């Protein structure tokens, strides 16, 4: 299960006889998995043609191109294609609604784009929204949450999904009861690459130990002192000028101030609550490290792709019952 | 006093017989004032050739071009040219030191670039730095602070200088005793134009009343609740999607969350302290409005250019004593 993800290579199309397709159509990337009825992955293709790069009319062609060579087991029936993610956004392929919390992460509301390619039964899954106490939306993460719940249906706690816009979802009784979002990942990127801080952070990546030390200290500062983030940002530049603060220490400090201030702002979600962190790679490791520094219980870790696939399988199972 | 600032127009060079030149060489802009010995402004020229756009070797030519047609009253002596701002930065014309606080804002340490044009006695003023409790630097603002003190030498309080990187300087006995800097202006620009929030803020500027109402409410939230800024940023996007939050209300909310969190982080600087706000235009008005919302005493307002000129006059007076 889980063939390696490869870019679609027109010279080498692995013909695969599929029962349905699982698709994660994000802002930057598109991934498609050829699935058996039992939920096994036969093949995987990936492309950079995410929602952020496509006009609405381009989706059918991009999808057809990506899955070229994958043959339905039963050509007499439309091939079910389940899509989660930003393809269902207003600026995506076909807008899918938001289900308002509290709600199970999967439910009714999937939409079928009118220009879906012939032979494909395309369903784009809805996102989730919240109106009180704060307006919130998510699109794509609900499928990963569904994947986590498929493995642990009775989970009562918080699911954290780090990313460009980190989400913290409270879950009980199979439902998302509330959630909140942070711009932390995007803020880091903007500050590190486009603000005055970029001068001192260029070249970071060579000294993980320096990064981690600065990160942990900055998380601690943010948790102890609410104003640490706004008051501390310019100081990263000043320390570079006055004390020769090295790039990795600067990047670690910036990351720690940001993630620490996020944790400080959503304490009730993680303090004394069972935690799951769904993510892949360095960013999830940083959130786990920050939670450890904050004294939270050690979270269960789920790989992002596995969670997405488990969620799409669960969505498929629900649709087969319709 | 105070001729209107105009771009250098080669077709119309107002010949001016000058005693010295006052120059504010910032990151984005360069402004030069032709001055009499008594400190009156005869003429002013401006250009977009700020430090951010120049290589080190370009400064002499840019300066000469800008002041073409301005004739020294006494051609037998080098014309004094006093420069404040980022021309003295590491990536500027010629690096001037930082004077460490506590210090009078003007003192020793002015540097003369070795490639100054013939006939000009160029002095670039030092900036200020701080090492404890936090590393801090400023370059250019110290001259505006000196201008404020020239008008009110006994001032004991805080001077706030809004800008891309807002500074809050504590002043007593003619000296800057400490200061702190915030990235607030730059953060607003990055979030409003490059983050996910840009979608909902496009077109802001048409409804100042909506902006101001949202601004005031958001300042109040940030002052009351430390986590309001990180927790509230994504909500501006969500409110745009779910409730049709209008661009001006969104921009006002973003600005209020940012400036409010800055005030929350530097409360000891403005709470129960005499205040001066040095700035020009909308941004200074926003800081003054935020301070009012926070219950601070009404600040005295100084126009940024007047403060810069008063500071350069004070620097000239000190140098004449040397």
Automatic annotation (TrEMBL), chains A, B:
Entry's Gene Ontology molecular function annotations: 2-dehydro-3-deoxygalactonokinase activity
Gene3D superfamilies for this protein: 2-keto-3-deoxy-galactonokinase, C-terminal domain, 2-keto-3-deoxy-galactonokinase, substrate binding domain
Organism: Amaricoccus solimangrovi
Keyword Kinase part of the UniProt annotation: yes
GO terms classed as biological process: D-galactonate catabolic process
A Pfam family recorded for this sequence: DGOK
InterPro entries registered for this protein in UniProt: DGOK, DGOK_C, DGOK_N
Protein name: 2-dehydro-3-deoxygalactonokinase
Keywords: Kinase, Transferase
């Amino acid at each position: 299960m889980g063939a390696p993800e490869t870019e679609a290579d027109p010279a080498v199309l692995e013909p695969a006889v599929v029962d349905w397709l699982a698709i994660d159509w994000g802002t930057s990337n598109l991934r498609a998995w050829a699935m058996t009825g039992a939920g096994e992955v036969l093949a995987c293709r990936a492309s950079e043609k995410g929602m952020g790069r496509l006009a609405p009319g381009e989706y059918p062609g991009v999808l057809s191109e990506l899955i070229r060579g994958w043959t339905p087991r039963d050509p007499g029936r439309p091939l079910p294609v389940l899509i989660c993610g930003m393809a269902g956004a207003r600026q995506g392929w076909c807008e899918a609604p938001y289900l308002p919390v509290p709600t199970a992460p999967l439910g009714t509301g999937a939409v079928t784009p009118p220009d879906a390619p012939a032979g494909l039964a395309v369903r784009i899954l809805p996102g989730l929204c919240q109106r009180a106490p704060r307006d919130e939306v998510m699109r794509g993460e609900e499928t990963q949450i569904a994947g986590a719940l498929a493995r642990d249906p009775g989970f009562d706690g918080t699911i954290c999904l780090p990313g460009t816009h980190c989400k913290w979802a409270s879950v009980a009784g199979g439902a998302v009861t509330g959630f909140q979002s942070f711009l932390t990942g995007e803020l880091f990127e903007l500050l590190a690459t486009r603000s005055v801080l970029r001068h001192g952070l260029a070249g970071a990546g060579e000294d993980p130990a320096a990064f981690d030390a600065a990160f942990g200290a900055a998380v601690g500062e943010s948790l102890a002192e609410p104003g640490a983030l706004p008051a501390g940002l310019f100081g990263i530049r000043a320390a570079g000028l006055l004390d020769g603060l090295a790039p990795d220490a600067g990047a670690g400090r910036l990351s720690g101030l940001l993630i620490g201030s996020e944790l400080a702002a959503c304490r009730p979600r993680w303090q004394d609550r069972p935690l799951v962190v769904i993510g892949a790679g360095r960013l999830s490791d940083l959130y786990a490290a920050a939670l450890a520094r904050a004294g939270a219980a050690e979270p269960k870790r789920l790989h992002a792709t596995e969670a997405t696939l488990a969620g799409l399988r669960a969505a498929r199972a629900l649709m087969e019952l319709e």
